[in-house]
Amino acid sequence: MGKPASFHQQLIAKLRKLLRSRQFMPGAQFLTEREIAERFQTSRPTANKALSSLVSEGLLEFRQGAGTFVRESVLDYDLQRLVSFTDKARAAGKEPGTQVIACQKLTGAEVPQEVLQALKLTANEPLLYIERVRLADEQPVIYERRHVVARHCPGMTKTDAKGSLYAFWTKECKLTLSGAEESIRAVNATNGQSTQLGIPANTACLLVIATGFLEGGAPLWHEETLYRSDVYEFRNQLGGVTSPKPARGRML
Fold it and tell me: Cα(first)–Cα(last) distance of the chain, in Å?
């Protein structure tokens, strides 16, 4: 049996459920610290901590002098860790969906050289090519093209590609994902990309090019993923500036 959730975690789960219930629409003011404490029989510091957690997740926002408000319907991209789109959409109160355009087996000889280099493969090794559109409340928000090292997930099917790949790899294939290296840049959607995302051609989007790794450093996937900039916000938390330590010893 897993470790039982703490009261703080239970409170956050209850507040998420409250947000999903649509009692508080995007842009509406949320419960105050005092109201949460009274409603859920807890202390104000605990209520404040729960509110801060939901702000960190991107579900709420603090407005100076006004209170805490439900964030407008913007999806969050966490730059510090791998997060399933399925989980992220549900946490934002949206219903995730997937349109699988392609899921086919290829050899290294059939893919671009930069993909082979990123995945450290030879021309004879098998890959899976997965092309998908991810949906939030039936609205296309992500267009994804991904190459996967086939030997790590034998038997993967188009049906498996309809759900969370992270969940499939970790639960069904028993793989441990250690992280990814990615670059992000602004681009204008091509005609083909704009058709998949339901937006005008040349609309500004965010392109993520990433290589994901297994525990031990072996590459598992390489992706080019296009995010609609009107519904996605990329979020990161930076540390403070530290003063350099004075040099010790004699200067030469």
Answer: 62
Decide if 78 contacts 166 (C-beta within 8 A): no
Confidence grade of residue 231 (pLDDT, cut at 50, 70, 90): confident
CB hemisphere CA count around 72 (13 angstroms): 4
pLDDT in tens, 132-141: 999 998 999 9
Which of 183, 93, 104 lies closest to 147, judged by CA? Answer: 104
Residue 208's nearest CA partner among 230, 223, 196, 193 is 223
Cα separation, 195 vs 172, whole angstroms: 33
**pTM of the entire predicted model:** 0.69
Q: Is the pLDDT of residue 124 over 90?
A: yes
> Distance (Å, rounded) from C-alpha 6 to C-alpha 128?
41
For residue 63, give the 3-state DSSP assignment.
strand
